[in-house]
């Protein structure tokens, strides 16, 4: 292919190739179109237009593309001036390479950067740079229109992934709060000398760090959990808060291995943790009771104390926790009796609010959603492993689970379902 588009017909043909590309293939198509003008091995994009994948890569060198990071692309943005592509040496894919970087100049499209790797030592002619600029402007305008119109394949996948990630962040935030509470309990304890208090606090911190570093744990708990196992996870988080402290904690396990949907188990643990953390700060508290039980079609969780009985619902559960329970069709009741104590009761239905057909991605946990995102981008197992920093065998494991949960038989069907479309016959 020539290094220049010598006729209007050729330029229009290239433009048609771009606007005919499915959204998930747009960067790959852009790289193919530009390769005739600017030979390169890989392309990286950093854009505000994609909520679920702001950083994307493509190119003939898949290994290099998989190593390109968002941080590297972000650092390249300081090289740019509006409408002036930059060619030079920079780190991309972990190594110094000759790159061409171009930013969008189209109004309303936000920040959008394109970097091409291994473009050669010879400075590119001004007409070629202007053409690359116009091509990237066209691509960003097209992507902006797709995003503004709520293209189904982006909307469904972005919404499901964002919700799952927000839930995971909230879970980790609560665990951090419980871990810090355990450390402070040891340091404040009047029954421990200074050396013992420091030792216990360090042990609490080490245990918390070890738990947070257990990635297999975080991958595994986002499917289903037995009721007793789910409650025991909560117990392991709560006990350090009361050990060596003046408040006695009593516990009531649900006494059943009945499977709980992961979102229900996590919401129950989060609500109970929040209530316990708020209640234990009261003066004059001597005892607290935490119990779960499973009725025919709902999980019930209760926290009861013998404190002043003056805490309101807003002080016990944040807006986030209340909304999380409500989103699952559950409810929260608070009974506070002055001088007798406070009881918080959380109920969560075990039946799904919507069928899998209505919300096909609802049954996937965050790691599976991340793998599905990569499938929707057309990436192979090795590329997915590199992008998510996991092994290929783990990718295969997740792909198998995804196919089973979505009720499909191929990667293509799973990707199409994630994009809100079905493949043709």
TrEMBL record:
Keyword Manganese recorded: no
Domain HTH luxR-type: 357-422
Keywords: DNA-binding, Transcription, Transcription regulation
Coiled coil: none
Cross-referenced InterPro entries: HATPase_C_sf, Sig_transdc_resp-reg_C-effctor, Tscrpt_reg_LuxR_C, WH-like_DNA-bd_sf
Keyword Transcription among UniProt keywords: yes
Pfam family, one: GerE
Domain of life from the UniProt record: Bacteria
Name used for this protein in its record: Response regulator transcription factor
Phylogenetic lineage: Bacteria, Bacillati, Actinomycetota, Actinomycetes, Kitasatosporales
């Amino acid at each position: 292919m020539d290094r220049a588009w010598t006729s209007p017909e050729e330029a229009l043909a290239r433009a048609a190739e771009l606007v005919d590309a499915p959204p998930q293939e747009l960067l790959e198509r852009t790289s193919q179109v530009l390769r005739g003008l600017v030979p390169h091995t890989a392309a990286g994009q950093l854009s505000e237009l994609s909520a679920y994948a702001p950083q994307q890569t493509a190119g003939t060198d898949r290994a290099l593309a998989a190593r390109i990071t968002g941080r590297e692309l972000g650092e390249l943005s300081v090289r740019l001036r509006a409408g002036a592509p930059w060619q030079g040496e920079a780190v991309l894919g972990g190594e110094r390479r000759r790159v061409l970087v171009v930013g969008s100049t189209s109004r309303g499209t936000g920040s959008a950067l394109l970097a091409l790797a291994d473009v050669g030592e010879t400075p590119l002619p001004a007409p070629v740079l202007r053409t690359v600029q116009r091509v990237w402007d066209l691509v960003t305008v097209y992507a902006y229109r797709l995003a503004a119109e709520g293209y189904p394949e982006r909307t469904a996948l972005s919404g499901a992934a964002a919700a799952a990630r927000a839930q995971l962040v909230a879970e980790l935030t609560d665990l951090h709060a419980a871990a810090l509470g355990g450390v402070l309990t040891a340091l404040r304890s009047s029954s421990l000398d200074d050396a013992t208090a420091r030792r216990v606090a360090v042990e609490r911190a080490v245990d918390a760090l070890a738990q947070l570093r257990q990635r297999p744990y975080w991958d595994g708990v986002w499917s289903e959990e037995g009721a007793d196992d789910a409650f025991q996870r909560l117990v392991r988080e709560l006990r350090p808060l009361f050990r060596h402290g003046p408040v006695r904690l009593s516990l009531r396990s649900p006494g059943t291995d009945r499977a709980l949907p992961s979102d229900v188990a996590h919401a129950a643990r989060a609500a109970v943790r929040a209530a316990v953390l708020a209640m234990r700060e009261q003066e004059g508290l001597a005892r607290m009771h935490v119990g779960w039980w499973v009725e025919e079609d709902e999980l019930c969780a209760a926290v009861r104390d013998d404190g002043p009985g003056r805490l309101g619902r807003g002080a016990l559960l944040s807006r986030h926790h209340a909304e999380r329970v409500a989103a699952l069709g559950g409810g929260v009741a608070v009974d506070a009796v002055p001088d007798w104590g406070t009881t918080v009761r959380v109920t969560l239905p075990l039946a799904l609010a919507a069928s899998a057909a209505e919300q096909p991605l609802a049954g996937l946990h965050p790691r599976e959603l991340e793998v599905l995102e990569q499938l929707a981008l057309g990436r192979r197992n090795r590329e997915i492993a590199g992008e998510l920093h996991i092994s290929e065998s783990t990718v295969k494991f997740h792909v198998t689970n995804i196919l089973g949960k979505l009720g499909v038989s191929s990667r293509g069907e799973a990707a199409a379902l994630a994009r809100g479309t079905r493949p043709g016959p």
